[in-house]
Amino acid sequence: MTAEPATSPAIRILLADDHHLVRTGFRVILEVESDMHVVGEAADGERAVSMAGALRPDVVLMDVEMPRVDGLEATRRIVADADRSNGPAVLILTTFDRDDYLFAALRAGASGFLLKNGTPEALVAAIRVVARGEGLIAPELTRRVIAAFARPGGEPTTTAVALSDLTPREHEVLVLVASGASNAEIAANLRLGEATVKTHVSRVLAKLGLRDRVQAVVFAYEHGVVRPGG
Hints:
Elements: E1 11-16, H1 20-31, E2 36-42, H2 45-55, E3 59-63, H3 71-81, E4 89-94, H4 99-108, E5 112-115, H5 120-131, H6 139-149, H7 157-164, H8 168-178, H9 183-190, H10 194-208, H11 213-222
Parallel strand pairs: 1-2, 1-3, 3-4, 4-5
Helix pairs in contact: 2-3, 3-4, 4-6, 8-10, 8-11, 9-10
């Protein structure tokens, strides 16, 4: 595969998987990329949490089913322990195509979710996406999971206050983000430039205290901004 030019410091990656051969395979794939560097490996979730704090990676590749502490709980701890703006992005990788795992991962604070049967190119691209602070969730995946698991309505007063801080345009952007639309699609829908859309998305995340657009999708459905099937 062709590596992107290393125009900025390499993406620091922590591998968390209880299978040594899987970790080795990931390392081989990633270390040939000029903009990526594997800084450590963890064989269980508890070790992943401690290494994330010590090594301060940019991205944690996290398996779900691991001994001692599973990947979902490890993700919750890493996200809770980290500074919102500087903490690592967690990219969940699993062999299990299960909706409950996916939604639990997103609610735990993961920035993305991939199946291990994907291609090396998809893995590399996903790491670059979450390292930029963007969430990785396909529109069809958004509809499938949120429709099954999200709780509509009933937001607390603090949420209502936070939503009231959004401008009408920012609210429109939040609704479109929740539909799974890309920045280009939002720009076309609202007749805005992509740079302007990116600014609106950043402001929405900041005002609502969210890490990335994946969390924005979950937030929008859980707090009744949009509703499954609506």
